[in-house]
Specification:
The chain is an alpha/beta fold and about 140 residues long. The chain is built from 3 helices and 8 strands, in the order E-E-E-H-E-E-H-E-H-E-E. Strands 1, 2, 3, 6, 7 and 8 form a 6-stranded mixed beta sheet that branches. A two-stranded antiparallel ribbon has the order 4-5. The longest helix has 17 residues. The protein starts with a strand and ends with a strand.
Length: about 140
């Protein structure tokens, strides 16, 4: 799985003019299941993100994790993270998992974050979503599992 993690002060997802998910301080996680990904890989990525020390401690250093801070996560599926731009100007997305498999892994990932004690909201798989955020820092990290 691929994930783009952004530390945020707030984030939201709006579909057809209706806000369907929102979070305060925490992370926005854009996630893409790739061909060959497994539930075990989704769990490992969720565990790593929950423990990722990207939040400030009392000294202002990035020493605290999402789990440490009690922050929340907004998880949004984004198949375009699978973009292959090696053959021209139009990206290809054939490395992304097929839609049914991708959705199952996306939901598994979000559920595992919940299992780890993280408050999680999600976007809607396959929907045309407007994602809003206020990036804190900014801190943006790319991860693969």
């Amino acid at each position: 799985m691929r994930a783009l993690i952004q530390r945020v002060t707030e984030a939201s997802v709006t579909i057809d003019g209706t806000r369907v998910a929102e979070t305060g301080p925490g992370v926005l996680i854009l996630v893409c299941a790739m061909q060959g990904d497994t539930a075990a890989g989704a769990e490992a990525l969720a565990a790593k993100i929950a423990k990722l020390r990207i939040f400030r401690d009392d000294a202002g250093k990035m020493n605290r994790s999402l789990a440490d801070t009690g922050g929340a996560a907004l998880v949004v599926s984004q198949f375009t993270l699978a973009a292959d731009t090696s053959r021209g100007n139009r990206p290809g997305f054939s490395a992304a998992a097929p839609p049914a498999e991708g959705e199952a892994l996306y939901l598994w990932f979000a559920d595992h974050l919940r299992h780890l004690g993280i408050s999680v909201q999600t976007g809607q798989f396959g929907a045309d979503m407007a994602v809003g955020l206020v990036n804190d820092g900014p801190v943006t990290i790319w991860m693969e599992q």
